[in-house]
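Thanks for the sequence, V.! I ran Aminotransferase class I/classII large domain-containing protein right away. Repeating your input here for the record:
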Amino acid sequence: MEGWLKETIGRLPDIFRSDVEGLIRDGDFISFAGSYVGELSSLSGPLARIADELGLSGRRKKDAGREPGTERRQRNGAANDHGAAREGETEEAVKLGSDKTSEVDETIKARTNETDQIDEATKLKAKASERLREWLASAYRQAEGGERAAEAGDRLLLADSAAGALELAIRALLLPGDAVLVESPSSPEALWALRRRGAVLVPVQCDRDGMLPDDLRRQLRAAKPALVYVTPLHSTTPSGAVWSQQRMLALLEQCDRHRVPIVEDGTACGVPGFAHAAGRGGEDGPVTAPEGGQVTGGAGPAPARPQGAGVPGPGTASIRAASDSIFSLWLSQAKWRRTSVVLLDSFERAMFPSLPLAWLRGNTAMLARLAAARTEEAGLAPASNQTCLMLYKLLTDDRFSLSEHTAAVLDELNTRRIYMKELLTGREWRKAEVHDPGSGLFLWVRLPEGIVSEALLKASMLEGVAFTPGIRCYAAASEKLKQSPIMEGDWIRLNSAAYPAMGIAEGIARIEDALAEFTARS
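Predicted structure:
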């Protein structure tokens, strides 16, 4: 659950907080407030197959992404059980005579084989993070091209989650009291994490193309920030617009002039830039399938697919290319050496929600700084070896196509978004205004006049559902949602991708119940 939402629940009156916490404990709480896609049924088959191949069964399949400590405790418990079994079997054999000795020998051999398999799996997991890192580096080199991109491909640090990657960057680059420039609006999860670090948030005015250059220059001079945090390829507004390249270049130029680093958060996009071009798995990186179906790169030939296969059609969601990012622009030109860019990226938010993992890219000095912060700060865990192994096996499986999976995910997100939008045409929403960005994870709803989003959130939580009030996407509570006429009024943000149809319908019905109470009172 998002940190800001936990805090909101914690500030409820005791009797209300107890009711909401009870719904959460019972698994009967629906949240449209997050930035993650709900579980995807299309992944269950491939992940189950890989879990079987890796010797994970039962509970261990379900817990494939858990932290290494949990896994070690499970193994230790299993080893103790095996030891007790061997001891009991040996005593029984002594009692029954030598005719049982052979059974004991067979049992010991079986247990030894199991131990050898566990040891082999442990070695494989230990190498998995390095192999996955190499695979990702290869994917970026293929997608971005260029000599400097190839040199930078290996500069990549794995983290245990998208939130963990952001936390690591914040800890490495900020001290309490440092100023941070952010978009207006911005990611509510990032704003909460920055506030928790003690950062002073300084909003920069934006339009549909990104930060306004004049206000950016003004705030850089006045605030003297320690960093700039942006999500240029993920829309934070109802318009669905993303940054233009011109605005990205302006940000690089100004940050280079003022020697201010940039944290570019690509995790919110849900789909890494190289994913749409990757074909079937290969040990040396994704096998790409350019126009015409001819396969290049990777470990070897992959089955040819029809031209355009795996590329989402109109109305699904726009996919960024790896070369679209601020990080790639920074790589492409040597003149911006006085600033540094850290790119956060992940499969976690949309592509593989059951395998939490993210990564950070930067130059050698920056990655050393990030690694040092992880060592110094408690709770900043590296990526789970088991998660790395599961993900690596999936990505390098020649039966799995990343581009086809990407297309399937985007198609599912589109289906869920359209379904939620249809539900928002009911009687309780007749005075509301729904804005559909046309892609991504969110729908935005301008509430009927007189209904306050924060009050509606508290009423909705008692019904067992949550969403993000629009004001939570702003650095200061005093900011008005009036960047353009489309932003006037009080808004809420709904994650349309968090649940399949049944969960969406139930969640919207619960918000409607809360809305009905407001309407009745008014």
